[in-house]
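Need STAS domain-containing protein's 3D structure for a figure. Predict it.
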Amino acid sequence: MSGRQTVVITHHLAEGALHVQVPQELDVGNRAAAALEIEALVHAHRPGRVVVRLPSRHPSPMTFSALARVHRMCRSLGIPLTTTGPDGEAPPEPLGLALPDRPHQLEHGARHDH
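Structure prediction for STAS domain-containing protein:
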């Protein structure tokens, strides 16, 4: 067994937002770790919003599962969550429909209407 650890997520804080990158699709072995790591970062930093950059425009079921868990937590804390694809483009529409209260407007600096 190798002593090498795989990076599950990377992150940085900028302008009040927590930016999280999921560098590769998650699987059964690292899905929970990714969600827990993001949740811990949100609780530690209390950002104004969370932006998650996904590894592809069509996330795997395990990646989507972790994202859904983080989305529920952010919603319960009143923290907007947005997602982008690997090059900063918007994710495919089914992802937006599955996370219906995503504040699309915040990606463009517009105010979030409730």
